[in-house]
Write a structure and sequence with these properties.
By secondary structure, this protein is α/β, with parallel strands linked by helices. It has three domains: 163 residues, 2-Layer Sandwich (Nucleotidyltransferase, domain 5); 149 residues, ATPase, nucleotide binding domain (Nucleotidyltransferase, domain 5, 2-Layer Sandwich); 231 residues, DHBP synthase, CATH 3.90.870. The chain has 20 helices and 21 strands. Strands 13-21-20-14-15-19-16-18-17 form a nine-stranded mixed beta sheet, sandwiched between helices. A five-stranded mixed beta sheet has the order 3-2-1-4-5. It is globular. The chain starts with a strand and ends in a 19-residue tail after the last strand.
Amino acid sequence: MTNILGISAFYHDSAASLVVDGAIISAAQEERFTRRKADERFPSNAIRSVLQTGGVLLKDVDYVVFYEKPLLKFSRLLETYLDAAPSGFDSFRKAMPAWLTGKLFQKRIIFDELRRIDRGFKDPSRILFSEHHVSHAASAFFPSPFNEAVVLTLDGVGEKATTTVAIGRGATLDVVRELRFPHSLGLLYAAFCYYLGFKINSGEYKVMGLAPYGVPRFKSLILEKLVDLKEDGTFRLDQSYFAYATGLKMTNARFASLFGQPVRRPDTDPLTDFHMDVAASIQGVADEIVLRLTRSLARDFAIPNLCMAGGVALNCVANGKVLRDGAFKRIWVQPAAGDAGGSLGAALAAWHLKLGGERVIAKQDSMKGSYLGPEFGQSEIEAQLSRAKAVFEVMPPDQLIDATAAALADGKAVGWFQGRMEFGPRALGNRSILADPRSDHMQKTLNLKVKFRESFRPFAPSVLSAHVSDWFDLEGESPYMLLVAPVKQSRHRAMTVSEAAMFGIDKLNVRRSEIPAVTHVDYSARIQTVHVETNPLYHALITRFEALTGCPVLVNTSFNVRSEPIVCSPTDAFRCFMGTDLDVLVAGNCVLHKPKQDSALAMDYRGEFEPD
């Protein structure tokens, strides 16, 4: 038996994953334990958790694999600064001490950290390094349901590559093409995220959510001035508009002058129609780049399957367009497509590419619904809730499902805490806030009174897999909420002339369909199909809700407030429940109603988190 521990760390969203003889056993992000969003520190807590879940001691781990190669990244930094000298000296001066005192010696740092977890881990030769984009590609292909696939990875930058193409066959994976820094779709999108006043590495979702409110009137300008886009999807960025390569900011004064407005200050500057149009424009450019890439890859390799990973693969709008485009018959996106998933890919790459281990292909995939984190038994849930002074009732499963479905049908917002925690940025029905999608006011209520976030941000529908095509223009599966598709035309509500003439945020309060709480202003939805095989309890809940309402869909958003990591433990769940306007909390078989709780336990803890 070969135990392989994968690690990602030191940039953002550190994580750990355990693979045993090629089987994915457990995976978790460090942020869930430390309660620090996108925590980049060494994932000591995540390592302890995944090993405990797998029943493996660290001293018995055969290989520990880090998800990238620090020396390659350092050489890229040196090349970049030398090419741009003397520009960027200030950035160079600030970056070098961290590298010269630590980052260049990551094997020693990793070994020392592992020894703090388990003094029995004594052999540093068991620590291996995978290349960043190989880790991404491995995380996409090896868990996929395909024996053969084109594998496309897109992100900001790894060591040197920003985009790679690999061909996966069986247990092999060969990188055949790459695009290198500073030409990066991830960094282009991040530059616009910065320009719009959102935080990089978390605000990209906001840009994507804001885009449908605007008109892409700057798309041609971006393609004319900033991006030299070729027919095959390859591109070059005009660096005279950007500062990310050698500076301390993403864009410069020339960038702002091109669009005619300065960088938006999030604390003082409101979102205007201009910002919505900029968001629509960069999303349109991203869609165009990804579509040109995927069309050319489908022509060149004549393989019907596509796998995707890297942070850009979390852009579910672009993913949905790739699927509907039809150049590839099937696509599969790693649910933890960002750097957290690199920990899993590093472990899988070691098993298959270094050790020559066999690959077993699962019918749906090998991710087990991405329910790979820790699980809390009923006795532990009750103990934690009791320590928190919660008032709860314990119900048998059937009664629990009935009571929760009835609360949802009655318009209640429900915190739903069950089973193993999800791996990746999406709550998929185990650490979720649930609500009735038929409600006209639920999107606004959840955004402003539960999530405490911007009112324009959309919510996702969870739909029974057997009914997805009855409600959405999607044929097939979307278990990881990584595909956007239109709401079925037959479910639309026709807008009045005055409603259709609205612009920007004014569109928000228009009832657009039978399920307005999950229908974005462009009639799209970010869909999660729910399958009885991977989550029977959640499937049963939606089935019961359908019996009560005729609607096999629920609002599903992550169980947290703005800037907070998704809840991990029952204690986290109760704290979030008491700090928001959630009506009901269902944790394991425990049911909690807000009016029955001690009001003195209510708290506003949003100030503890750095704004996203």
